[in-house]
Structure formats: structure tokens, C-alpha cells
Specification:
This protein has 331 residues and is α/β, with parallel strands linked by helices. It has three domains: 56 residues; 57 residues, no CATH class; 175 residues, Nucleotidyltransferase, domain 5 (2-Layer Sandwich). Helix content is 41%, strand content 10%. The strands form two sheets. The chain has a five-stranded mixed β-sheet, with helices on both faces. It has a two-stranded antiparallel ribbon with strand order 5-6. A hairpin with a 2-residue loop joins strand 5 and strand 6. Helix 8 runs parallel beside helix 9. The longest helix has 18 residues. It is elongated, with a radius of gyration of 29 Å. The termini are far apart. This is IS481 family transposase. InterPro entries: Integrase_cat-core, IS481-like_transpos, Retrotran_Ty1/copia-like, RNaseH-like_sf, RNaseH_sf. GO terms for molecular function: nucleic acid binding.
């Protein structure tokens, strides 16, 4: 019989059986002296029903993922082309802070998730006709803006709204949570985007909602009056405000896809309060900008892409782009 003992074992199954068979008249200390072991070793084996080592693997593993969490990570690998270390950053930040690198690797192997090299080969040998027409090449300063409804938290009296801005060229994201989706709030958000963006904003693309335009009314489509607060904010700073064509939300698909990632974040954990939710979204935004490589950026993060753009086209920028260990700030 193949007997496996722990490396530090001081007794064999035969000695353990002798300890268990010893009469009650012999004390633990006497048995310890007889076998040259400590009293604790005698107590461990004397009152056992077996003589074999038990597994030291803990029963409540803290590094496991739920099936839903595994699906989120598999989707992140496929969509963002994240390497193991980058995927681990996302997993620890938003799904399970105790997840180990080896545990994540085992999950990917068990679920037969393709490696980055295999995904690259699939990309090269896939359909010749793309599923959608890609965006033309743009320089930093073409910004998509959208509003997403957020779930109401237990401590909140009303729902809140997530405002998201994303630059087409660098995928840089800025977001805020606001209490309404009014034109006033949309204008205030636009002011913050102008202040936070390290580049000069040339063009903004939004949907046709009342938050952004008065082009559409109950009577139908009309020429924008120029009096809408969001339009006025853009005009003040010489920013061209474009609207997506009616019935073609895919035109604003870049920000819609980012909102899809936000939806994944919202559904993979419980939030104790509105503040908890807001801090999580801010952490995700920072992680996205500084650490998550984008396939469209040749596997660079948005901040790395901005630094590259600034090196070759400094006139496009109003602030110096640097990597920061905390929330996005530019000098």
C-alpha cells in the first residue's frame, strides 16, 4: 500500500496504531517520552479512529469564482484581449480580491479559454467581411457622450444617472454620477469633461435625447434652436455638437460598449450604499484608463495611447499626460 506522509511527520501509521492501542493507565507524557515525540503528537493520534494524515487543504477556499464571475472574466479576455496579469488586476479589483494568479490560470484552462496567441490567429483567419464598419482614424478630441440609468441603492431616495464621455482616438473615459438627466446636468457634465480632458475637444457626439438637444419635439424633427444648454456650452468653447442619426444607436456604439462593461460591474457584486457604488465605478474608470489594454489601441491602455499621441502631436493637448497611482489628474 502506498502510504503518503506529510514531510514533517514524526510518526508512522504503525507507531500511531501503537499509541491508540496503549492502555489508559499510561499517560500522554509517558507515551511521548517512549516514542520521542511531543505531548501534542500523542494527543493528536491517541484519540483518532484512523492512522493516516488528513489533507491540509482548507475546505472553504477563498479564491474561488462563481460561474457568473467566470463568465465575466472570459468575456473580458475575449473582448479586451487581456493577458493573464491584466485580467488578474480586473478580477481582484471587482470580483474577488483573494483570487490567485494560478487560480485564474487554472480556471482559464478548465474552461478551455483561448490564449491571446490563439485569439490573434482567429482574428487573422476569421471572416474577411467585418461585422460592422470601423470608425475612421481620428485624433484625440472626438468625444462620445451618453447617459446610463443606475440601479437605486437601499439608502437612496431616487435613481441616479451615470454620465459617460469617451474619446474616440484614445478610449480615455471620464464619468460622473448625477441625480437627473436634465439639460442642466448634461451641460454641467460637459463643463467637467472640458476641464478634465488633457486634450482640446473638437467634436462631441450624443444621441437625440432632450438632455442634449431640442432638435426633436413631439411635433417631429426641427432645426436646433441654439438655445439648448448643452448646445450653448459647446458653442461657447467652439466644439462641434453632432447628433447620431435617428434609429442608428450603433453610431454611438463606442460609449454603449463601455456602458456594457459597466453593466457587468454592476451585476457581479452587491453594493451596500450609493457611495459604495460610486466609489466602485470611479475605481473601474481609473483602472480602465491606466491599466486595461485595448485591442483597438494595439494593446495599450488609454493613458499610454494619450502619451504616445502627445509625443507626436503636442499641440492637441492642454495638459501633460502622466500615469498616476490614484484618480485621473493631469498637469
Amino acid at each position: 500500500m502506498d502510504i503518503k506522509l506529510h514531510k514533517q511527520a514524526t510518526t508512522t501509521p504503525k507507531i500511531r496504531a501503537e499509541i491508540q492501542a496503549a492502555p489508559a493507565s499510561i499517560s500522554d507524557s509517558e507515551l511521548a517520552r517512549q516514542y520521542g515525540v511531543g505531548d501534542s503528537t500523542i494527543r493528536r493520534w491517541r484519540y483518532r479512529d484512523d492512522v493516516y494524515d488528513r489533507s491540509h487543504t482548507r475546505h472553504n477556499l477563498l479564491a474561488t469564482l462563481t460561474t457568473e464571475q467566470e463568465e465575466v472574466l472570459i468575456a473580458a479576455r475575449a473582448f479586451l484581449r487581456l493577458g493573464l496579469d491584466d485580467l488578474l488586476i480586473v478580477a481582484r479589483e471587482f470580483l474577488n480580491p483573494r483570487l490567485s494568479r494560478s487560480g485564474l490560470h487554472r480556471m482559464l484552462k478548465r474552461r478551455e479559454v483561448p490564449t491571446l496567441a490563439e485569439l490573434a490567429r482567429q482574428d487573422a483567419g476569421g471572416d474577411e467581411t467585418p461585422r460592422h464598419k470601423p470608425f475612421k482614424d481620428y485624433e484625440p478630441g472626438y468625444v462620445h457622450i451618453d447617459i446610463k440609468h443606475l440601479p437605486q441603492m437601499p439608502d437612496e431616495q431616487q435613481k441616479r444617472y451615470l454620465y459617460v464621455a469617451i474619446d474616440r482616438a484614445t478610449r480615455w473615459v471620464y464619468l460622473e454620477i448625477r441625480s437627473s438627466q436634465s439639460a442642466k446636468d448634461a451641460r454641467a457634465f460637459m463643463k467637467q469633461v472640458e476641464e478634465k480632458a488633457p486634450f482640446t475637444i473638437q467634436t462631441v457626439l450624443t444621441d437625440n435625447g432632450k438632455s442634449f438637444t431640442d432638435r426633436f419635439t413631439r411635433a417631429g424633427e426641427r432645426t436646433p434652436s441654439g438655445q439648448h444648454p448643452f448646445d450653448q456650452e459647446c458653442q461657447t468653447h467652439g466644439i462641434e455638437h453632432r447628433l447620431i442619426k435617428p434609429g442608428r444607436p450603433q453610431t454611438n456604439g463606442m460609449v454603449e460598449r463601455f456602458n456594457g462593461r459597466i453593466s457587468d460591474v454592476l451585476t457581479t457584486r452587491r453594493y451596500a450604499s450609493g457611495e459604495d457604488l460610486e466609489q466602485t465605478l470611479k475605481r473601474y474608470c481609473w483602472l480602465y484608463n491606466h491599466h486595461i489594454p485595448q485591442k483597438a489601441l494595439h494593446h495599450q491602455s488609454p493613458v499610454a495611447a494619450m502619451k504616445e499621441w502627445q509625443a507626436k502631436r503636442p499641440a492637441l493637448f492642454t495638459k501633460r499626460v502622466v500615469n498616476h497611482p490614484g484618480p485621473d489628474m493631469y498637469t
